[in-house]
Amino acid sequence: MKRRDFLKASAAGLAAAALPATAGTAAPAAGEPGRRAVFLVPGYRTDLAAYRGAPVDRSPEMKRHFPKDFDAGGTLVTRIDEGDGTVRRALMPIFGHKITVSPDGRLAFWNSMNGLSLVSFDPATLEMGVYAQPRDGDHIGGGHAVFTPDGGLIVATERKMFGDPHADPRDQYGLITLRDPQTLRVVESYSSHGVAPHAIALFDDGRHVAVAHYGTMNLPRPNERPVISEPSLCVLELAGGRLVRKWTGDHPRREVRHLAVGGLDRIAAILTEEGSGEDMRARHRDHGGVYEPDLSVEEGYSYLPAPVRFFDAAAGTAGATSLAPDPMDMRQGQSMVYDPVHNQVIATFTSSHTVGVFDGASGALARLVRTGGLGLRYPRGVVLHPDGVHYVVSASWGGLFHFRRGDHGHVAARDRHDLFFDHSHLSVLAA
Question: How far apart are CA 301 and CA 274, in angstroms?
Answer without folding.
Answer: 7
